[in-house]
Write a structure and sequence with these properties.
Elements (H helix, E strand, L loop, with lengths): L1 H30 L3 H30 L14 H23 L4 H27 L4
Helix pairs in contact: 1-2, 1-4, 2-3, 3-4
């Protein structure tokens, strides 16, 4: 049961990052009347995505950590991807997004944010890949 919950959470994390970042937001800029309108909606979507990411990572941490593991037990496989993805989501939401919304050095912060989003997407994908591989 925990394995299925973890796989579902990992798929939701990676899939939502993919859909928002690579499909929905580009469509906003292509189809809304002004870039300002698209930017405002994109900011809301990225905030929602940050919280989806946090929730998925928390579920993954709970589902992949063994309760009966003693002090000498090893960390769950892929823990570094989970923690890096969580850190990136929080840094995007609280460090980068406010600067983009304030239009503070927009080119720099948009580039930093895009790079961090891509890194989070890679962390989620690597964890999903690792979790989905056959055991045995």
């Amino acid at each position: 049961m925990k394995q299925r919950a973890a796989l579902l959470a990992a798929a939701l994390w990676w899939g939502s990052l993919t859909a928002i970042g690579f499909l929905v937001v580009p469509m906003l800029f292509a189809h809304l009347a002004t870039p300002a309108m698209a930017g405002q909606m994109a900011a809301r979507l990225f905030t929602a995505q940050s919280w989806v990411s946090v929730g998925c990572v928390l579920v993954l941490l709970l589902a992949t950590t063994r309760r009966d593991a003693g002090p000498g037990a090893s960390a769950p496989p892929g823990l570094m991807f989970l923690l890096a993805g969580l850190l990136l989501a929080l840094l995007l939401e609280y460090g980068v997004a406010p600067r983009i919304v304030a239009r503070e050095n927009l080119r720099l912060w948009h580039g930093v944010g895009s790079g961090m989003y891509l890194l989070q997407w890679l962390c989620a994908g690597a964890f999903l890949w690792r979790l989905g591989r056959p055991r045995g």
